[in-house]
Amino acid sequence: MDDKLMLMIPGPTPVPEQVLRALAKHPIGHRSGDFGKVIAEVTAGLKWLHQTQNDVLTLAASGTGAMEAGIINFLSPGDRVLVGNNGKFGERWAKVCQAYSYAVEEVKAEWGKPLEPEEFRTKLEADTNKEIKAVIVTHSETSTGVLNDLQTISRYVNAHGALMIVDAVTSLGATSVPMDEWGLDVIGSGSQKGFMLPPGLGFVAVSAKAWEAYATAKSPRFYLDLGKYRKETAKNSSPFTPPVNMFFGLQVALQMMQKEGLDAIFARHHRHMRATRAAMKALGLPLFTSDAVGSPAITAVAPVDVDAEQIRSIMRKRFDIALAGGQDHLSGKIFRVGHLGFVSDRDILTAVGALEATLQELGYQNATLGAGTTAAAQVLTQS
Question: Domain limits at 65?
Answer without folding.
Answer: 17-259
